[in-house]
Design a protein that fits this description.
The complex is a heterodimer of chains A (about 400) and B (about 375). Chain A is α+β, with helices and mostly antiparallel strands and about 400 residues long. Chain A has three domains: about 20-110; about 135-245, Butyryl-CoA Dehydrogenase, subunit A, domain 2 (Beta Barrel); about 250-400, Butyryl-CoA Dehydrogenase, subunit A, domain 3 (Up-down Bundle). Helix content of chain A is about 45%, strand content about 15%. Chain A is built from 14 helices and ten strands. Chain A has a four-stranded mixed beta sheet with strand order 1-4-5-8. A four-stranded antiparallel beta sheet of chain A has the order 2-3-7-6, with no helix packed on it. Chain A has a two-stranded antiparallel sheet with strand order 9-10. In chain A, helix 4 (about 85-95) runs parallel beside helix 9 (about 255-265) and helix 12 (about 330-350) runs antiparallel to helix 14 (about 390-400). Chain A is globular. Helices cover about 50% and strands about 15% of the residues of chain B. Chain B has helices at about 5-25, 25-35, 40-50, 70-80, 85-100, 105-115, 225-265, 275-300, 310-335, 345-360, 365-375; strands at about 120, 140, 145-155, 165-170, 180-185, 190-200, 205-215, 220, 265, 270. A four-stranded mixed beta sheet of chain B has the order 1-4-5-8, with helices on one face. A four-stranded antiparallel beta sheet of chain B has the order 2-3-7-6, with no helix packed on it. Chain B has a two-stranded antiparallel ribbon with strand order 9-10. Chain B starts with 6 loop residues before the first helix and ends with a helix. The chains are: A alpha+beta (about 400), B alpha+beta (about 375). At the A-B interface, helix 11, helix 12 and helix 14 of A face helix 7, helix 8, helix 9 and helix 11 of B.
């Protein structure tokens, strides 16, 4: 377990027992991120914000050009084939350089389902364009009446000769307004047991009958939408895998969750750096906010909680590398990450004081003080304990699956 | 990135857990406490035989010179089974202070490893709170050696120790790092008054009064006036060992609570069917995972470089204290009335965790230490 010479700094690079090859890899990715992360991304990334869609595409194309378009995919589908340690190094170095997380809905959600359960034709048609950034996928899962209880979804898919006809309404469809593809769950058998009648479809967004209505969220950003499906006719080849088995395909993602949570949690160091810088630069009389021991203590509290989470992620990745099961830890990490993202960005906004009120320009007059990203990031962070299975649902899952209650 | 134990470390872990489960059953523990005994000499001899007491003793003195991981593995079992043997004081902290510190220290170190001596460090003084440099005890040079006068307010396991490492000031002012020297004194030295007391976790600690304690030249450990850094390093090792102990204790409390939720029935169903309780125990499970991760990080960092080493240990002490007290308190709450009784182990775990939090600086103390270190690093 321990090499006595190991140097260890949990908030800096995890310099743990890296082999010479891993060190060379770290230097390589570090150089890439330092040289290639656009300056214009950094302030928003540090605040935990998502980039604009066009910027995500730019970033994806940059990574693809370097051969790193799909860091978590196997080589045979165009991925890097990296092991968990390499993935962890990659994400940690990205975090240090204020580089963004890749947009995940194609790469981490539908891509792996396609390469695991899709037909050869589907693999050939869809996988390359996810890696190049030419396709943007959105997720048609939630509905107005099916949020946490997703399996109660009521969108119908009715077989009509060589077609399925889909009717219903999807909610919280992030980036449906920019996506050219959607993967959606619809009920093919209304009489089957709840989960059993659900199928997964791959949809082109320009198919007639699809209407996208924007939903602006409290951070004043248009990330998400409602999607109306009015007798949308899909060829039978749009069905992924078998009819009625759509619900089960998501299970393949459980094993991959560890990588996704690692990618996002390494970014908490970015928000901590931002908050610390805000405390160090905010002048109060002769000194700065960080001179106040109450402020320094609160910051230290957040720092040590982030360290504990970082430790959980490192253990999880180490277990993945040696083929061990981490039980429910991915769910635990999601809960703690979202809670901490909220606390850190809330604290950062508080540290800004009146500057946090400089939210939007009026008559194109320049905003006084620092840019408003910390406040926007703080508002955006509210959704992180809701999306991807709310933290309450995560606790239900842990209680049932891991604790056997 | 390898957090896995080696095969040998796993064997040691299995052996420690098995020893705890076989020899430290709670009913026997309780009976022993009722007799006024924190631990049995026989158990200490067993641990010596198993090699545990020599883990941190150098090889040339018959020890094993093991890594901090072996210490972690043993301490986890001590916490899990509420064992009260003075392992951390005698076999983790004292060896750090006695290494390469002269022939008398080496002799004592060999005796510790063989289970023939117990040594505690007297690191705390009145009005000093957790500041290791708050040393008002004076050591005056005499023709034959030194004369020590002062008070040590709290000595971990001091009531069972045969000897003490005593920091005393040979120069400088109270609070200075420079001028602190370390002395070795056996418990029966004339003028050394040991006032034992039992803590809520049933550990027998002590207050020391030093009234003209006369020591020879060979009682000085290391360089005169240069003991402060060595003391801090030794206490850090002790802190990390106690984190592992806290981890073992909190996981035991968590396990007992989970099994209680499965078996205790109210309103016609196991109480674990209630969502309010499910979410609470999930938060306890998360707290255990955080504590385990922090304990690993702290253990690894002991062999690492500054400033990461101190930052990680400070953060770990704070976080393990916070999470373990949360688990200990919720364990009682979820057990309801029986959790509040003396005859169930659950309350004893909380008392143990409260005492570990207080040892060598509580969570707030170490959080402030982290804040200062982060500031220096920035």
């Amino acid at each position: 377990m321990l090499k006595p010479a190991a140097i260890f700094d949990p908030l800096d690079i995890m310099n743990l027992d890296l082999t010479p090859e891993q060190q060379a890899f770290r230097d390589e990715v570090r150089a890439f991120f330092v040289e290639n992360t656009p300056q214009s991304f950094k302030a928003r990334v540090r605040a935990g914000m998502r980039l604009e869609p066009a910027e995500f595409v730019t970033w994806q194309k940059l990574l693809h050009a370097r051969g790193w378009g799909a860091p978590s995919w196997p080589k045979m589908y165009g991925g890097t084939g990296w092991d968990p340690t390499q993935l962890y190094i990659f994400e940690t170095e990205a975090s240090k350089a204020d580089a963004p997380v890749q947009f995940h809905q194609g790469l981490e959600l539908i891509g792996p389902i396609i390469f695991t359960f899709g037909s050869e034709a589907q693999k050939a048609k869809y996988l390359p364009a996810i890696i190049t950034g030419d396709d943007w996928w959105c997720q048609g899962y939630s509905e107005p009446g099916a949020g946490s209880d997703l399996a109660s979804l009521s969108t119908r898919a009715v077989r009509d000769g060589d077609h399925y006809v889909i009717s219903g309404q999807k909610a919280w469809t992030s980036y449906a307004h920019v996506a050219n593809r959607m993967f959606l769950l619809a009920r093919t058998d209304p009489d089957a047991r709840k989960q059993a009648g659900i199928s997964l479809f791959l949809v082109d967004m320009d198919t007639p009958g699809i209407t996208v209505r924007p939903v602006v969220t409290m951070d004043e950003i248009h990330h998400t939408n409602e999607v109306f499906l009015d007798a949308v006719r899909l060829p039978v080849t749009a069905l992924l895998g078998e009819e009625g088995k759509g619900w089960g395909y998501g299970k393949v993602l459980l094993d991959r969750e560890r990588g996704v949570t690692a990618a996002t949690t390494t970014r908490l160091a970015q928000q901590l750096r931002g908050a610390r810088a805000a405390a160090a630069t905010a002048r109060v009389g002769e000194g700065c906010l960080l001179d106040d021991p109450r402020i320094a203590d609160r910051l230290a509290q957040l720092e040590l909680e982030v360290m504990a989470l970082e430790g959980m992620v490192m253990r999880t990745m180490a277990e993945a590398a040696s083929g061990q099961d981490s039980g429910p830890r991915a769910s635990m990490i999601k809960v703690r990450w979202s809670e901490l993202l909220q606390e850190v960005t809330e604290f950062w906004t508080e540290l800004q004081g009146y500057d946090a009120m400089h939210f939007g320009a009026v008559n194109n007059a320049p905003l006084p003080g620092p840019d408003p990203w910390a406040a926007k990031g703080m508002l955006y962070s509210r959704v992180t304990s809701i999306y991807g299975g709310s933290n309450e649902i995560q606790r239900n899952i842990i209680a049932r699956r891991a604790l056997g209650l | 990135m390898d957090f896995n134990l080696t095969v040998e470390q796993q064997m040691l872990q299995d052996s420690a857990r098995r020893y705890g489960a076989e020899h430290h059953v709670f009913t026997a523990w309780r009976a022993r406490i009722a007799r006024g005994e924190a631990f049995e000499r026989k158990s200490w001899a067993n641990m010596a035989e198993l090699g545990w007491l020599a883990l941190n003793v150098p090889e040339d003195l018959g020890g094993l010179d093991a890594t901090p991981v072996e210490t972690m593995v043993i301490c986890e079992a001590l916490g899990r089974h509420l064992m009260l043997e003075p392992f951390v004081s005698s076999c983790v902290i004292a060896p750090q202070l006695l290494r390469e510190a002269g022939p008398r220290a080496s002799e004592l170190l060999a005796a510790i490893g063989a289970g023939e001596a117990m040594v505690s460090v007297a690191d705390a003084e009145p009005d000093g709170r957790f500041n290791l440099n708050h040393v008002a005890t004076r050591a005056e040079a005499t023709p034959g050696g030194f004369r020590l006068d002062g008070v040590k307010s709290h000595v971990l396991d001091g009531g069972v120790a045969d000897g003490f490492v005593i920091p005393a000031r040979t120069s400088g002012a109270v609070g200075d790092a420079d001028g602190v020297s370390l002395f070795l004194a056996s418990a029966d030295t004339p003028g050394l008054v040991v006032e034992p007391s039992r803590a809520m976790d049933n550990r027998v600690n002590a207050r020391l009064r030093l009234e003209g304690v006369t020591l020879g030249q060979d009682a000085l450990l290391g360089e005169i006036g240069q003991g402060s850094a060595r003391l801090a390093q030794a206490i850090d090792a002790g802190v990390v060992a106690r984190l592992a102990e806290a981890l073992g204790a909190m996981e035991a409390a968590y396990d007992m609570t989970l099994s209680y939720l499965r078996t205790r029935s109210q309103f016609g169903q196991p109480i674990g069917a209630f969502q309010a309780l499910q979410h609470r125990i999930v938060d306890m499970a998360i707290a255990c995972e955080e504590a385990r991760s922090m304990t690993y990080l702290a253990t690894l960092s002991l062999s690492g470089a500054e400033p990461a080493r101190s930052r990680t240990i400070a953060a770990a002490k704070a976080r393990v204290s916070q999470t373990s007290l949360f688990v200990g308190r919720q364990a009682i709450q979820l057990h309801g009335g029986v959790g509040f009784t003396e005859e169930l182990a659950i309350g004893h775990y909380l008392k143990r965790l409260i005492m570990i939090d207080m040892a060598f600086g509580n969570a707030d103390h170490h959080r402030t230490r982290l804040a200062e270190l982060s500031r220096q690093a920035a």
